Amino acid sequence: MASVRRILPFCSSFHRTCYSPSVAREGFVVKEFSRKITVQVAPEETVLKFENDTDVGIIEDDITKIQREFNAAKKSFLKIPEALKQMPKMNPEGIYVNKNLRLDNIQVYGFDYDYTLAHYSANLQSLIYDLAKEHIVNQLKYPESCLNFKYDPTFPIRGLYYDKLKGCLLKLDFFGSIEPDGCFFGRRKLSKKEIEEIYGTRHIGRDQARGLVGLMDFFCFSEACLIADIVQHFVDAKLQFDACYIYQDVNRAIQHVHQSGLVHRGILSDPQRYLVKNGQVLHFLKMLREKGKKLFLMTNSPYYFVDGGMRFMLEDFMGNGDSWRDLFDVVIAQANKPEFYTSEHPFRCYDIEKDTLAFSKVDAFLPNQIYYHGCLKSFLQITKWNGPEVIYFGDHLFSDLRGPSKAGWRTAAIIHELESEIRIQNEDSYRFQQAKFHIIQELLGKFHATVADTGRGKTCDLLLKELNEERQMARSKMKSMFNSSFGATFLTDTGQESAFAYNIHQYADVYTSKPENFLLYPPEAWLHVPFDIKIMPHHVKIHGK
User: Fold this and answer.
1) Catalytic residue at 112?
2) 192-230, pLDDT tens digit by residue?
3) Active-site residue flag, 114
4) Active-site residue, selected from the candidate residues 53, 114, 329, 509
5) Which of 190, 303, 356, 402 could serve as 194's disulfide partner, Cβ 3.0–4.6 Å?
6) CATH code at 97-118+275-415
7) Span 432-462, pLDDT tens digits
8) For residues 438 and 451, what is the distance between their CA atoms, to the nearest angstrom?
9) Is 181 annotated as a binding residue?
10) In contact, 170 and 180? CB cutoff 8 Å
């Protein structure tokens, strides 16, 4: 079938300047060019253009002007202008593009299972946390008081880093600097002064980075929370500890509850509590089959767990006698990612009835068979699937996507929290605080360009103090809309992209909240990087000018 080129916009584009005299009187002028949005402060009825002064020293007239502009801005902060309400909304279920992707060139679709095809409820994190803490106490002989710990869903976010040398849990920005309000020792947030005392600077250098471990997948929530709780417990009890040992023990416990099957059996014993039924993902997989695409499932989980989960999630939407395995050309369990992409482990054919692995060599993937282990090299030799025609969906940036991206596969990151974060960013209350923050930031920039650090008068100091307080208030309000401890997953408190966003930019050609979002796009679509996006395409930029 001849390919059809389709360019699909992810949101409405605005190619005209929007201006409202009534809004200008309120103190705002909003300009919309495509998806870049700028907000300008307009004292009285005149829009002020901020220009850098070339004068050196304190210029009283300029300080008075900044004060006047600030007073006008404060009046405009009393209510949200209509112009902000008319800003374009981002699609929470959209597909966002880091690298151009022609779906008509994709012939093979591969999927991870956990948090990709399988959707879990919030109860799963508590299950993992409780099983891990029991292992730490019962097997690793941690104090029995640790059994009193409870998982706190309001504390962690995905994409944090743990410093194995210093014991701090960090949120980093796109360039590897510590977020000022995103550094915790145990459950206590460290001040900027404490961060400087520990690290010398907010920027994490190459040597310091070697001691950091990224917590990037959806299972990391329980891991991050348990690490912080144990550190805090030892601090409160005035017990000496090695931060590296705590990480190793918690990580070992998390690995144990998965590899031993404790988590798997817990989920399958009460699937209603942990799994979310999903007819849309079945519709998506069937659509791909009807279009002649090849499908494979590759997961680190054992077959019995995947089979039980898939049957539960899809049973209400499949006909009698239908099997989820018929949707896939190849099913690989216990693949041992990320080693799968670099090792030379052979594939083993798995006997479902006997729960055993065959000893015969696998040189072809047969229908309705299950395979264990294996490696990328053998996979490509057997299937003859060319790298660029394969796209792989996964939630773990390192285990799922880094290997495929280096091997030439196209990659799709599944980030479930993306949907809720976009909904928050679409809210007028968030956009108002973001606009307010950038206006204050620009006033501060003009202030520092005008006034030297030394020789400030009382008037200057009072103005600077008030500007900083207003900026901090806007930052705090934006942060609290996401997560009270670490803020947004993709953004820092200042609206810059986070280190997690950097990793998505590195390893994911596209990203979205769930695989079935691809149903919104024809399988022949050309997915393009928006021309006006600098880093992360789901962020609408709001700038003060």
Assistant:
1) yes
2) 999 999 998 888 877 778 889 999 887 899 999 999 999
3) yes
4) 114
5) 190
6) 3.40.50.1000
7) 888 888 888 888 888 888 766 555 678 888 8
8) 20
9) no
10) no
